[in-house]
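Letters spell out the chain; backbone shape is given numerically. Both lines appear below:
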Amino acid sequence: MQKKICFLEVLNNIEMYREEGDSRLWAVDESDLFSVKTTYKMIFNTPNTKNCNLFYTLWSIKVVPSALTQAWRTLFGKLATRDNVIRRGVALSSSVCPLYKEEEEIVEHLFLQIKFSSLVWNKCYRWIDIMFEQHDDLRCHFEQSICIM
């Protein structure tokens, strides 16, 4: 109850300026008005266009949506790996991979560093008769795979 009273006191002490109306500003463009065109320019003119190009490339692939969603979650660090779960505030005893107990369970560990994962990648590429270089970085691995196809 005391917290509620304190909160109400704080709210009552806030001074509102009624002369000025609320407005929305889009600081990306000189006109301060939002448009899809200015948003597109902002996204593709930022220094981090590698993410944008990767995003565009990923979603232009013709596969089932569930596979695209899984690929997106993997490439953009949205999988519930132990390190991501801990970062989001869930209490776990350790971020070490529970299967191999050697390294931290991160996306690269699951999809590239585990021996079983390497064997799966090798078999897939041999199956489609393609030589490839396995990377430690998942994005490089994905980009190489897309260029090959």
